[in-house]
Amino acid sequence: MGLRKHNFEVRRSSRSLPILLHKYTYLSLIAYRRAATHRVAYLLSLLGNIVRVIAFAALWQVALSGRPGIGDYSQQTFLTYVLIAFMLDGLISFRTESLIAQSVRTGDVFTDLIRPLNHQILHFSNAIGTALIEGIWLILITGLLGYVWLDILIPQDWTTVLFFLISVILAIVIKYDIAYLTGVAAFWLTDIRGLIVTRATLVGILGGAYFPLELLPHSVRSLLDILPFAGTIAIPARIFTGQISGEVLWTSLIHQLFWAVVLWLFARMVWNRAVRRVSVNGG
């Protein structure tokens, strides 16, 4: 009886908030150090993204040549948006889906099931650690390109910077939620590599990674204003460029917060169904 009580106390203490925060923070640091030790791999991946953003920026420079801008965007604001969107699109790479899919394929997911940790928060901690190293390189690259080549706009108001950072945090959560859902699909699909590419492409296009969503027809924009994708890239990029302010700014942040919570809860529900599927199949 005493041993059972002791084990219960150990499990309860291991799930207390301070201990859990310490555990998840430690996992984020491990993921950060792992990413830092594989700098060459990340730099090669970023090299492809650099070529892409240079091509896009050069293309838009030619398209905007001789024109003051497009719609509500001046030429400088437009190019600033393109560069910031590139940076945001690079956060939360394919690693989340790949790790979950690999754990399902190898059976390591059963180890995750017996850990006294929340599977969703576990992978979120890993994603945050990786995003830190990705963010450092992306900031350096975009900063260099913006300063040397594009002469991008820099917010002069500290409140704009603050709201931008809040929006970026919400964007990371939304993008992680979508990536987590893609990874958990490995419980039902044999190979999710095609699904991963589809996810990245859809989030990039519908999120505004390649061009401002204002260039799309009004009917399409109205639909995208409801869906979560704009919250991954377009909203924080528009806050940075000053295209969103006042009441619209608060509405946009609420939009991001709503989808961050809804998708998190939906992803949790899908994970629970995946676990039940494993249990039913005798895994």
What layout of secondary structure does this protein have?
Elements: H1 2-14, H2 17-37, H3 39-63, E1 69-70, E2 73-74, H4 75-89, H5 95-106, H6 109-114, H7 119-150, H8 158-184, H9 193-207, H10 218-224, H11 234-240, H12 246-280
Antiparallel strand pairs: 1-2
Helix pairs in contact: 2-7, 3-4, 3-7, 4-7, 4-11, 5-7, 5-8, 8-9, 8-11, 8-12
Low-confidence stretches: 1-14
Number of domains: 1
Mean pLDDT, all residues:
78
* Helix percentage range: over 70%
Structural category is: mainly alpha
Instruction: Give the C-alpha Rg.
Output: 21 Å
The oligomeric state is single chain
Overall geometry comes to globular
Q: What is the end-to-end distance?
A: 31 Å
Largest sheet: 2 strands, antiparallel
The proportion of strand residues reads under 5%
Helix and strand pattern = HHHEEHHHHHHHHH
* Count of beta strands: 2
Please state how the strands of the largest beta sheet are arranged side by side: 1-2
Tally of helical segments: 12
Structural notes for this entry:
Keywords: Membrane, Transmembrane, Transmembrane helix. It comes from Paenibacillus radicis. This is ABC-2 family transporter protein. There is one protein chain. The protein is built from 12 helices and 2 strands. It is 76% helix and 1% strand. It has helices at 2-14, 17-37, 39-63, 75-89, 95-106, 109-114, 119-150, 158-184, 193-207, 218-224, 234-240, 246-280; strands at residues 69-70, 73-74. It has one domain. The longest helix is centred in the C-terminal third of the chain and has 35 residues, at 246-280.
